[in-house]
Specification:
This protein is α/β, with parallel strands linked by helices and about 260 residues long. The chain is built from 6 helices and 13 strands. The radius of gyration is 18 Å and the shape is globular. Bound molecules: guanosine-5'-triphosphate and magnesium ion.
């Protein structure tokens, strides 16, 4: 598999000097640990330590999931972070409003929400605003249509606050309902899945991939809340060719 299969294109290659083209090794960050990155050049994934200097700058200048980095020849060091096409970030709630980067170089954001009590116009509006601020195309994905007799009402409610964004209403477990979704998951496209815990982000990823890449877990029966099953961000390549970023459900989303 090539770098292109992981989203590498002219935007990134033109950033390399001729020296870097000769000796640098471009790789994409597919997951992160506290002080190291999990990267791929298109085939295997491997770990690269992030040296102390990366922690001296604000977190926005540190590689995050989806970033392209340039590694030293020995693949033991991150030489530099390549300029991003886009970055999806959130501001933490509370007075300090720290910025947390959720995914870089995202082409399309799937804002996942479900046809049950989890659905909330204000939350949807906040996600749409973050997508717009980041310049990322947003698609609203309403899951669990099979569990509601009134899924069209959720679509109407979503439509009222979503402007011209595309809205898809699906059963995330059923591949046949994902035709509209697949228009966005073509080769080399990076799609980030965001939304509350339990809405079906990992389920959607597994169905699109046609295999169980991520663990899923039933939501709590008493209040429909998810169990924060996915605990870290990771990128997965699906057969159709897209790179999907599974972003764990966020407890609070502030603007
Ligand atoms: N009936 C039905 N169940 C669904 C649908 N989508 C997801 N589920 C179920 O909802 C539960 C939660 O799904 P997950 O995919 O684990 O949710 P998640 O968004 O990844 O949650 P976190 O990892 O906690 O952020 C699982 O039991 C899924 O089988 C759907 O469209 N219809
Ligand atoms: Mg999950």
């Amino acid at each position: 598999m090539s770098l292109e299969a992981f989203g590498w294109d002219h935007f990134f290659s033109q950033q390399l000097s001729s020296d870097e083209q000769d000796s640098g090794i471009p790789a994409r960050v597919v997951a992160m640990h506290r002080t190291s990155l999990v990267v791929t050049e298109g085939a295997d994934e491997y770990d690269v330590a992030l040296g102390g200097r990366w922690f001296q700058d604000p977190s926005e200048f540190r590689p995050t999931v989806g970033d392209w980095v340039l590694l030293a020849e020995g693949r033991d060091k991150v030489v530099r972070l390549l300029e991003r096409k886009s970055v999806f970030k959130r501001y933490s709630a509370g007075p300090k409003r720290d910025i947390q980067l959720l995914a870089a170089n995202v082409d399309t954001l799937f804002i996942v929400t479900s046809c049950n009590d989890e659905f909330n116009e204000n939350r949807l509006v906040r996600y749409l605003a973050l997508a717009q601020e980041a310049g990322i195309m947003a698609v609203v994905v309403l899951t669990k249509r099979d569990l509601s007799n009134e899924s069209h009402r959720y679509v109407e409610r979503a439509r009222k606050v979503s402007g011209s964004s595309v809205i898809e209403c699906v059963d995330a477990r059923d591949s046949d309902t994902l035709e509209g979704i697949r228009l966005w998951t073509t080769k080399g496209q990076t799609v980030a899945l965001v939304g509350s815990s339990g809405v079906g982000k990992s389920t959607l990823l597994n169905t699109l991939a046609d295999r169980e890449l991520q663990r899923t877990e039933a939501i709590r029966e008493d209040d429909s809340r998810g169990r924060h099953t996915t605990t870290y961000r990771s990128i997965h390549r699906i057969e159709q060719g897209a790179l999907l970023v599974d972003v764990p459900g966020i407890r609070e989303l502030a603007l």
